[in-house]
Amino acid sequence: METRWEDRAEALLSEPYAVIDSLPMQVPADSAGQYFAVERWMQQPQQKEPLFRKLAAILLRLNCYFDFRVCRDCSGEWESNPDPETLANWFVACANAEQPGSHRLLVLLDSQNALFAVDGDDAYMVLYHPSEQLLRLTEQISTAEGLFVWRHGNGAEQETIEHTS
Q: What is the per-residue pLDDT for 125?
């Protein structure tokens, strides 16, 4: 029986998730700051491409531990363990997407029953249904890249994942 990777990915998109972000937690809706102005600034190519390179580096390091299946732009085609340069180039292309909603990468870790998703419209990456082991490893690698991991989903209170040595 053929595995339907799209079905697996779709099911994971409704699971609890963690966010890999340049901010340590979700900005409250009533924040006195200027989140939307900063977000527009982060969407500029000169800001976004370095961030997406960091996101690619996180996944490349995780690919040392886990097999990946990657789907670009919801094409339905899943590539197993693309070479590092190819994966990094896909992230750069996603960061430099000119049309809103035109680029999306899904990275399925079948052995972990987890999914990473990054959209060209966003300035973060989402990890759906992470095990505690995968979450800890993702947090450690993200910290090395200068990014934060915070958890949210299914009504659970948001929390920053604390790094413990």
A: 97
